[in-house]
DNA sequence: TCCTACGATGGACTTCGTCCAAGTCAAGAA
DNA sequence: TTCTTGACTTGGACGAAGTCCATCGTAGGA
């Protein structure tokens, strides 16, 4: 059983075959699948798994902080299992592919108090846009 | 006629009443409307304007670089007419409202060459997330 | 004023995601 | 091991956001 599954059991997650398959599909680095791709890959191993279950499970993994939602303008959300190591994203404007990157600096600290307008700022998301070697 | 409309005419834009109304709705600072809100406000002045026209016009304004699309996870896109002055966004996780902010620092420079993986990085988008005073 | 290519229309369609009632099953209790 | 129960899954309906397209209308140049 993967580390992820072990942690989930430790949190009282009921371990069903569907959840196991979804968690396994999301294993690895630089994985940024859409819900539909997750469903496709999960269905390859467990043909009867439903779309609703995939959405439910992804939502739970996000709520538990095990998986990040990556926002992509005008496309389907992507899910990033690498939530435990903080990182940002580099997105190709051509083909939509995503790389994890680790900028230096402190983006959160770069926002002065005067620019927070009374908001309680909890996180910052930095997305670099450009063209990958294949699309350039 | 606003500056925006003047610029658009200069670029050969055919000025129809529909486009004029959409451009007028998007005038001002700290305006971050969804396509639907734009349609609603435009229809208040020009009742027969169609959704398709609003989408077309917004798409053209984005392509011309006059308006920015603001990505919001799991919600409708918002359109930001303040494309000419560089800024970033502070988004309320509760109600989805958006403020323009101006962080210090150089987010683009914070990405080391070794972390660019051969990409031609053109821009960076920084989104701060938190709760506005009303939702906190 | 007339022409015509560009733009607008609205309704069908697609994509992405959520909801729900009914059926199923993991895992603790006995 | 079997029972029990409530959490989980299912599939289909639904909804929101956005796109497409055939047809009609009109801005603006001749």
TrEMBL record, chains A, B:
InterPro entries for this protein: FUR (IPR002481), Fur_C (IPR043135), WH-like_DNA-bd_sf (IPR036388), WH_DNA-bd_sf (IPR036390)
Q: Which UniProt keywords apply?
A: DNA-binding, Repressor, Transcription, Transcription regulation, Zinc
Q: Does the keyword Transcription apply?
A: yes
**Transmembrane segments in this chain: where?**
none
Q: Would you say which domain of life the source belongs to?
A: Bacteria
Pfam families with a match to the protein in the record? FUR (PF01475)
Q: Does the keyword Glycoprotein apply?
A: no
The UniProt family comment states: Belongs to the Fur family.
State what protein this is by name. Answer: Transcriptional repressor
Protein source organism: Streptomyces lichenis
């Amino acid at each position: 059983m993967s580390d992820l599954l072990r942690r989930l059991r430790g949190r009282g997650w009921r371990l069903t075959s569907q959840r196991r398959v979804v968690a396994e599909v999301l294993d690895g680095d630089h994985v940024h699948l859409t819900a539909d791709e997750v469903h496709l890959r999960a269905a390859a191993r467990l043909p009867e798994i439903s779309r609703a279950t995939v959405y439910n499970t992804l939502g739970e993994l996000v709520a538990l902080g095990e998986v990040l939602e990556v926002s992509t303008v005008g496309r389907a959300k992507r899910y990033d299992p690498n939530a435990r190591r903080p990182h940002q994203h580099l997105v190709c404007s051509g083909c939509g592919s995503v790389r994890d990157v680790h900028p230096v600096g402190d983006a959160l600290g770069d926002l002065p108090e005067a620019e927070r307008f009374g908001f309680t700022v909890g996180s910052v998301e930095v997305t670099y846009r450009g063209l990958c070697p294949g699309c350039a």
